[in-house]
């Protein structure tokens, strides 16, 4: 039996589908939103990662755990919630794996947990994790969670760590932050783009890589799963080609977006939505 935490998210929903296509039995640990799993032949179980007592039945008879469940936030004031779910939750998953004699844990980290500098060298699996209270809460929580995953190897757990870059792809029901940005682009509600870009990876490639790692990776190994770098302008152009909605013509420098951030945050608060840009 394979247990997937965070099975209702973008990666989780695609992972469930891929494993079912291979004929493997899947148990999905879900908290509330189950849209990504509707119509699938998958066992679902409710549990709270922050409540160790609720995890016992979910881990019973499980051979492999894919730990994807994570709180994602771009807000600077969400450390307590991020620490509770991402760090304490990961620690509880590790403890449950050890108690239940799980054969292998596939822990999903984030490229955001790694130090940006030095900028003149490729970012690889040996780059140091971010540390310090000055680090944005999400990045800090994912770095702390990966630290827990690395320590689990010393505790006797066969853990492999997957580190995706920015993920995009189908079955994005919630949707993800990137999915929300695409919706805004497709509706013509983004007035301007920001200079720069990112490394994007197809969620199906992430799933394929994770399954391969589960099957053949060496205990304690880490794998960055990336795709191709595209500028924000290129992403907007591709979205426009698909939707027929023109991309914003204006591109502003980062410093100008930072100046406008307090106003954007206030407008988002009034509208009950997430801001399209946050302070770094």
How would you describe what is shown here?
The protein is an alpha/beta fold and 280 residues long. The protein has one domain (2-174, 198-231): NAD(P)-binding Rossmann-like Domain (Rossmann fold). It contains eight helices and twelve strands. It has a seven-stranded parallel β-sheet with strand order 3-2-1-4-5-6-10, with helices on both faces. Strands 7-9-11 form a three-stranded mixed β-sheet. A two-stranded parallel sheet has the order 8-12. Helix 3 (79-99) links the parallel strand 4 (64-67) and strand 5 (104-108). It is globular and about 55 Å long. The termini are far apart. The model has no long low-confidence stretch (mean pLDDT 90).
């Amino acid at each position: 039996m394979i247990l997937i935490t965070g099975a209702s998210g973008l990666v989780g929903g695609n992972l469930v589908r891929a494993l079912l296509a291979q004929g493997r039995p899947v148990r999905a640990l879900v908290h509330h939103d189950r849209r990504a799993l509707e119509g699938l032949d998958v066992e679902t179980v409710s549990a709270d990662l922050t409540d160790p007592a609720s995890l016992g039945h979910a881990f019973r008879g499980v051979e492999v755990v894919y730990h994807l469940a994570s709180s994602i936030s771009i807000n600077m004031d969400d450390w307590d919630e991020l620490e509770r779910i991402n760090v304490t939750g990961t620690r509880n998953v590790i403890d449950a794996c050890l108690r239940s004699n799980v054969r292998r844990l596939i822990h999903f980290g984030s490229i955001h947990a790694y130090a940006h500098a030095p900028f003149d060298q490729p970012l690889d699996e040996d780059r140091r994790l971010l540390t310090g209270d000055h680090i944005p809460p999400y990045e800090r929580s994912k770095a702390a969670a990966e630290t827990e995953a690395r320590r689990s190897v010393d505790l006797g757990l066969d853990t492999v760590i997957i580190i995706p870059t920015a993920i995009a792809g189908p079955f994005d029901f919630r949707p993800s932050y990137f999915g929300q940005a695409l919706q805004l682009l497709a509706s013509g509600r983004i007035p301007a783009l920001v200079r720069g870009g990112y490394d994007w990876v197809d969620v199906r490639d992430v799933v394929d890589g994770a399954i391969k790692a589960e099957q053949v990776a060496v205990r304690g190994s880490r794998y960055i799963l990336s795709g191709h770098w595209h500028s924000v302008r290129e992403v907007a152009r591709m979205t426009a080609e698909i939707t027929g909605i023109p991309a914003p013509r204006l591109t502003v420098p980062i410093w100008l977006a930072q100046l406008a951030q307090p106003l954007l945050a206030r407008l988002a608060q009034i509208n009950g939505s997430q801001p399209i840009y946050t302070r770094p």
